[in-house]
Dirigent protein (Hibiscus syriacus), 184 residues
Amino acid sequence: MEKSLILALVLVLGTAVAVAPCRGYYSGAEPYVPAPKKVTHLHFFLQDIMSGENPSAVVVARPNVTTASNDTFGSVVATDDLLTIGPNVTSGVIGNAQGLWVSTGREVSCLTVYMDFGFTVGEFNGSSISIFSRNPVSQTERELAVVGGRGKFRMAQGYAQLKTYYVNFTTGDAIVEYKVTVIH
Ligand SMILES: *[C@@H]1O[C@H](CO)[C@@H](O)[C@H](O)[C@H]1NC(C)=O
Ligand SMILES: *[C@@H]1O[C@H](CO)[C@@H](O)[C@H](O)[C@H]1NC(C)=O
Ligand SMILES: *[C@@H]1O[C@H](CO)[C@@H](O)[C@H](O)[C@H]1NC(C)=O
Ligand SMILES: *[C@@H]1O[C@H](CO)[C@@H](O)[C@H](O)[C@H]1NC(C)=O
Ligand SMILES: *[C@@H]1O[C@H](CO)[C@@H](O)[C@H](O)[C@H]1NC(C)=O
């Protein structure tokens, strides 16, 4: 009896020792049960302002190469852009888009955006959607990929249809209309 107890102890301890390295960072796989999906449509304007005393988008790095044209290829811009209900900033702020956009088009102006669109009012206050996408800004209308989200947008996927409302290529200021379809 005592022998079998010791054997059992050894087995238990042995198992514990063998399993121990996994504990703490891996708690086992469970089947993923997705919640029923919802479709949410969002409509807002992004204010990407590079000019003035209080810009919402600032160049944080640019390549040190001399090119024939004054293109911005390679520039990295950090943003905290306001999201507003209408095109005018006075229409009401509903959130902000924080992240980076990089000028990645060599031949034709194009950006790649890595941005988190966070909402600060209403049902989606505290939630955000993640956009990681090419943004061919030379086209007035374009589509971006929504690749994820936080809070009420957890596990989101979707797409954003963009339309440039205003752009000034001298200052770099732009106001862009976003119509986003989010499945979450
Ligand atoms: C930019 O490149 C030029 C030529 O290679 C060099 O002289 C200059 O120091 C560089 N400037 C910076 C800020 O790295
Ligand atoms: C580049 O920009 C400078 C300063 O804004 C301007 O004087 C020059 O004409 C521009 N060059 C080209 C090729 O556009
Ligand atoms: C935004 O609205 C303000 C006040 O309503 C107005 O003075 C301003 O001209 C508007 N700006 C634009 C770009 O429409
Ligand atoms: C949004 O949520 C924050 C944090 O929970 C809260 O402080 C704020 O009052 C909320 N804003 C609105 C407009 O509901
Ligand atoms: C762009 O901004 C500059 C500087 O504020 C201004 O002089 C110019 O008229 C603007 N161009 C357009 C098309 O709005």
